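S.,

As promised, the glutamic acid run. Input:
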Amino acid sequence: MKRLVLFLCIFSVFLFSGCAKQEKKLSTLEKIKKEGKITVGVKVDSKPFGYEQNGELKGFDIDLAHLIAKKITKKLEPEVEFVKLASNDRIFALNSGEVDMVIATMSITPQRNVLVNFSRPYYVAGQALMVKRKSKIKDISDLNGKTTGIVLSSTGESTIIRLAPDTKIKGAKTYTEAFSLLKTGEIDALLADDTILYGLINGSKRYKILPRRYTQEYYAIAVRKEDKDLQHVLDRAVRLLGDSGELNLLKKKWMK
Ligand code: GLU
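Predicted complex:
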């Protein structure tokens, strides 16, 4: 009998503690509104979209994150926490819950769309090749037998496999690292978004960006699959920023 009473006591403790935990979990959007804060995954190797200067994060995507935070929280000075990510980390950081959204030169692709959802695009870039000024490479068809650099898990990786299957590929973790490989001659060309290549070349006469664009890269804000309400709000926010001319101002500020 004593054992039965003891068992019933323990069972009821479990039962009630279970009930107490059944509070409804807030969605990411609800959490953002409640806390007045967003956590955003950004890049720091992708000037002029995301980079670091004297310890401060700067760029188109950083400014966009601040505008988006104001729109969602309706606060004048919302808190924006930035998490620095490489291209390869974006989807994991999002789906593991480390960030609420990713604003990081991230293109919409059908493969990524299986794992995350995107807002409408806020910018369209194109992939291009960067080579040394004196290089004889003029187009992607000249890359056979040469070594081409890409950043791992970027769309450049799939483009090079598709358009230059006979080139040797060297993957780098970041664009800074990929550019060093071009400087030292370990790669003959670097395939990346023209936006990022312009940031790397930074007016230097030692390198050139070839004229052809091989893809269209639709940059959009990525959210977790389950965050449909957040996706909807971001979609609207990007549309409003487009209509009000604020996106154009960002383009003028960062893409000189
Ligand atoms: N926009 C391309 C992508 O999403 C390349 C830029 C990047 O690696 O961030 O993969």
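The longest strand covers residues 37-42. The chain has two domains: 28-124+218-254, 127-215.

- D.
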